[in-house]
């Protein structure tokens, strides 16, 4: 009597190997790309964080591959909170993709704070938030992130229309 678990287990193994391989490949890519970052400091510089992330990704990917080879597969999702009868809302997906593209275009045109506020507000609205509440939170969040990066960390995000404003122009 066949229960049908053998094909599922073989498919799950392939999926787990692919996942581990992709994570490891992303780690290798991150490590190689981190080497291209120009750093003027001898101590911990701009390369430290990408190197750490790359190593963690590589170790995690290899660990997933080794675990799969030893037969330790992840448990299949039972879907207890998932309504399988509900279909994907492609309109919401399209809105979110359009907002991401708009964000990329707007960064150079109006600066990061405005582009981020559009992205944050638009994403919240697309996911069902009241637009004016989302707008208020998005503007505050975008400005706080800009101030933290520009003034607190000394990193430059394009200020755009806020060019010359002391706290916002990095």
Provide structural commentary.
- By secondary structure, the protein is mostly helical.
- It has two domains: 8-69; 90-162, no CATH class.
- Helices cover 65% and strands 0% of the residues.
- The chain contains five helices and no strands.
- The chain has helices at residues 5-34, 48-69, 90-110, 112-126, 131-152.
- The longest helix has 30 residues, at 5-34.
- The radius of gyration is 22 Å and the shape is flat.
- The N and C termini lie far apart (69 Å).
- The model has no long low-confidence stretch (mean pLDDT 85).
Radius of gyration over alpha carbons?
22 Å
The number of E-state strands comes to: 0
| 3D shape | flat
- Average pLDDT, to the nearest integer? 85
Structural class from helices and strands?
Answer: mainly alpha
Low-confidence stretches: none
Strand proportion? under 5%
Outline the biggest β-sheet: none
Q: In total, how many domains does the architecture comprise?
A: 2
Distance between the termini: 69 Å
Q: Helical region count? A: 5
Helix percent band: 55-70%
Order of helices and strands: HHHHH
Keywords: Membrane, Transmembrane, Transmembrane helix
Protein name: DUF1468 domain-containing protein
Transmembrane segments: 17-36, 48-69, 96-127, 134-157
InterPro entries: DUF1468 (IPR009936)
Can you lay out the helices and strands and say which pair or pack?
Blueprint: H1 5-34, H2 48-69, H3 90-110, H4 112-126, H5 131-152
Helix pairs in contact: 1-2, 3-4, 4-5
């Amino acid at each position: 009597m066949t229960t049908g678990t053998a094909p599922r287990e073989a498919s799950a193994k392939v999926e787990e190997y692919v996942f581990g391989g992709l994570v490891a490949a992303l780690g290798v890519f991150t490590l190689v790309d981190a080497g291209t970052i120009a750093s003027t400091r001898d101590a911990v510089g701009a390369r430290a964080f990408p190197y750490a992330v790359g190593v963690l990704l590589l170790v995690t990917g290899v660990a997933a591959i080794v675990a799969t080879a030893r037969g330790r597969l992840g448990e299949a999702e039972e879907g207890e909170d998932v309504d399988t009868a509900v279909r994907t809302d492609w309109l919401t997906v399209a809105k979110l993709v359009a907002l991401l593209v708009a964000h990329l275009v707007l960064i150079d045109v109006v600066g990061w704070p405005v582009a981020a506020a559009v992205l944050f507000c638009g994403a919240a609205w697309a996911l069902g938030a009241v637009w004016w509440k989302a707008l208020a939170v998005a503007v505050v969040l975008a400005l706080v992130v800009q101030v933290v990066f520009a003034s607190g960390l000394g990193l430059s995000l394009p200020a755009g229309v806020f060019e010359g404003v002391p706290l916002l122009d990095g």
